[in-house]
Structures are given as structure tokens and as C-alpha cells.
Predict the 3D structure of the following.
Amino acid sequence: MSEKEAAVVLVATEINKRIDIKYIPEVIEQTIIESVTGNVLDLVDDFLPESGSIYRFVSVFDDGLSDDDVAVLLTQLRDAVNDLVDIPLLDEKQELYLLDLITSVVADLIKNGASV
């Protein structure tokens, strides 16, 4: 599994622990969340400067980032992702909730120095 794939699975699994999509089996739910998470993380990765990669942030820092660094990154990511992403079948409020959830999980993983 590549660093990118492992990061997507890690973030999607954390998100899946926090939400439940009614009437959808857990395996399909995980697949859906991984797909959306992968697309969002790709957009986030494109947004970051060449020296940075969201996959590297999620998987490399053993000590994580400071709260201030994470707050700045999270604000930039949330704004950029919200401008770029349109998720069919979700209204804007639901979309924003999901995007906030994805970026907050990524921020928690960055801050806590998660590894894949």
C-alpha cells in the first residue's frame, strides 16, 4: 500500500468511526468515505506548496505540529476545499459538515503525529 493509499484509509477510517450512513452496510460506507476522502485529500495536496504534501503531513511527523500551525493549516484547507468541492446529493450544509469533518480529522492526525 502506498503512502497516499495508507493516508486515505487512515483518515477515512477515523471519519467512519464518527459517522453512520443509514441503510448502507459498513463495508460500502467505508468505500464511499475513502473515495470522497481521497478526492478531497488530492485537492488539498494540490493546494499545498510543492515542498509539502498532505500525505506526508499525515504519515511522517512523529511529534505532530503545534496547535497554532494546525489552526493555520486547517483554516487554509477548509476555505480552499470548500471552494473546490461539490459533492452530488448533499446540500451545502451537509457538504460543509463533511468537509469540516475531513479537514478536522486530518488536522488531528497531523497534530498527533499519526503514522501509516
